[in-house]
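fold-stage: in
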Amino acid sequence: MSEINTTEIPETGSGNETATLEPYRHPFDSTATIASAAVLLPPATFGIFANLLTVYVILKTPKLRTIFNFFIVSLCISDFISAILTPLFLYRRTWGFDHWVISGFLCKFFWAGDTGTSISTSFHILCFSFLRLFSIMWPHHYKVIKPFHAKVCIFVIWIVAIGTGFVPFLIWFDAQEIDRSVDGMERAWPACTILIDWLPQFRMYIYAGYPIFYYIPLGLIVVCSLGVTVVILMRRNERVKGKSTDKQSTETQRQRKENQAVLQLALIVGSYMFGYIPLTAYHIYATNVKAVTYEDHAFNWWFGMAEYMCLRLSESLNPVFYNIASSTMRNETFSVLRKICGISPKAKYKENSSNNMQVSAITTSAGVKSSKT
């Protein structure tokens, strides 16, 4: 991993000066490879299991098949695909950095799948946030929205994600030999990367597409989340002032659900920013800044690795956030986990009931003896 290419290439500078290109060295070593695997693979494994579990829990529980949860199921599928692509990214940045020896289609599929699911996730979260705001501000009108409408919206989201993310990246990216002895931006890139002929289109995509697919949705998600918080606080103040005749227990339960909804949105927004802002920032950096020194190469490598770590951690935690605002989903999730672990609630209940009966019998017997005495 630490081999040095000692070939020095003369480079013509301004005037009659001649500069020497710094010898190429790998920007990472075996320690960095092991550390990257240790950081990336556990969240990916958790993401695969957690997203599948969430989909299973929602689909098997009739009372969880709500409009909100239809979006969550689709979002979990998107995050599941992203999680299973993680080993390809790790290979691309480490063992396959210089020579992508596995199938070239897997290189294309990684970029296409990763970009398509990122766009899908962005618009899923936007729709989820909008529905949350709409349901709180106009609860009576919200009843007009049917599961059919949600399914149509989800279908459109996936069509957009495939057409604007999956297909272009399937064309633009491929595995290739990178000439490390030649000066240029691509000198620091992995073997599985953008084809240089498509670089102008990719740059245009970054500057025109990223605002549409990431930054504008992010702004709208923040606005929706703030709107939800403001509406909840305003209505809570109205109830406190005596405009509501609800009992104290009902009010406490309502506030707890409202707090859970606000917390869920805040975590989702924070997770979105944590994952996608570094992603877009790195792509802008990597396609505009030329790595000249070894420090430049090392920074490029660690920047690319760090932004992907943020993205994977962000998406792997989404199933946890989905369970925060729904006690029903939490209970069903724990029920499935108990079954997976071989813990039977019924058996435990029978054991407790048997113990209670024995205690009751002993107490009754002691009472009878005491009365006879």
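fold-stage: in (second)
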Amino acid sequence: MLEHATLRVLVQSLFHRKHRDVPAPSFHFHCPAEHSPPAFAGLSVGQSPWIQSGSSPTSPGSLFCSRPWNLRGLGLQGSAPNTPAMAAGRPEQRAPNGPAVTPQRCTPAGVPGPRGPMAPYRIRQYEDGDYEAVRTMFGHGIMEYAPAAYIHVLKCLQTQLLFLGLFLAVFAASGSLLVSLLALLLTLIGGWFYIRSLWTEYVQQSLRNDLLDIRRTYLEAADSCFWVAEAEGVVVGMVGAVLPEDPSERGRALELKRMSVGREHRGRGIGRALCRTVIRFAQERGYSAVVLSTSMVQYSAQQLYESLGFRRVLERFPSRLASFLQFSVFCYRYEIPGSR
């Protein structure tokens, strides 16, 4: 027993001596037990040599929490242009041979932290050099919803009854189950191309109308404007404000139109910032509301508008075919606070 105790004391002595020879970093951060690790602005895991995976949570100078690290909480500069890189009023600290960082409040467990490194964006007025980028973004954004529209059509009871009737009619005429299934398959494929053609036609019609001459439609017309969101010199979002098509809304509201954000840039608050730009524009010109329309399959857009305070005030069908297939367009309205 004495020999074992002596050996244990010797090992501990050598262990502590080894650590005494290593200078400890001067930066310490201890998270409360009920929180996840903090998010550091301007810092990524790969950039900092003093944050290493697998380091002991009790070693001197290590960053640790009582819960596992959430690596998504370590990100670079925030995406919003007005978001400061470091929290105001918090002292700056510097790690040995590392970048200056400011401790942020820990992200509660279960709540995702900021997303990964992304370039900041800014919202500015449309310029003629943005013409092709705007038209391309609009076309791609609209065509993304063609599959959702097709799925909606397949779920419609009227469509299912038509397919059933077609199957039974072909089976009665041919007496072949294989021929009936083949006819049904060809009808499904044809239906997809038809639905897709409707969305393509809408895009082409829009490109021939207000998006044909964007400057004249949105910048030269009264109480109208067009903005783009730009990141690293690339247009990543767009939105316009015009007088509403509904005559009853003239003089009271402006219409939000053509809002779109590139797929790879979503989730950064760009769409929200674009909507607020239109609301502020309408408020500055004395309007009391902002109106807009969106299709029933644009689910993410509906969630965005409703989270900003838009209310669904009307549901309409753009055509008889849409009415038959129960495909509707939702009309939203936002009442500007403090307006008459």
